[in-house]
């Protein structure tokens, strides 16, 4: 049984001392692919180094994370553009979107950065990976502007309400990323998950964040995706084997790698 981690930040400093062991544990857990979203210009080099070191196993995305949008965001976006122009290894534009949980100072800039990166994704025929925190209405409004286009992607770490799920479902080219939060005691995901068609689910870890139970509070890593797989299979009333196959196919499909 193999499974895909569609969203992991193994290039961050948290893994600098034991990355080979982390990768080996992921392989032993049956993880067949790890997809890695960028954060900003400061992480491009370590991202590419890890993906080059584990070529064919780790796959890079390029994007500007919404929490990195500040007064220098236009400079950052030009770097994203340059990377896409000069490097064909990127499999998606991400992680992009909006985050109004921590700070709303750069609300307009976040919207502009999101739209700019959607345009890049369409230009290069790549999916986008959307980070959305306390900003769904804004994300939805922007995506509606591209309805009818070839835009596709993943709603990363989806934790919306049933109403938000219905709205997100309107965008048929998008998958829903489920991670360790589904195992948390107060998670609403077990109520939401049965409403999502299985052919639109992908699994992720968001390592080093959001470690699932029984690892909660520890550094998350790709091997722990098995705990998320087990919980999602239980909630959706399917076997882990069936779910791993389906979600793996979904991930490869959205990243344009399904043979």
UniProtKB/TrEMBL annotation:
The keyword Phosphoprotein does not apply. InterPro entries: Metal_Hydrolase, TatD-like, TatD/YcfH-like. One of its GO terms (cellular component) is cytosol. A divalent metal cation 1 binds at residues 7, 9, 95, 206. A divalent metal cation 2 binds at residues 131, 156. The keyword Hydrolase applies. Belongs to the metallo-dependent hydrolases superfamily. TatD-type hydrolase family. This is Putative deoxyribonuclease YcfH.
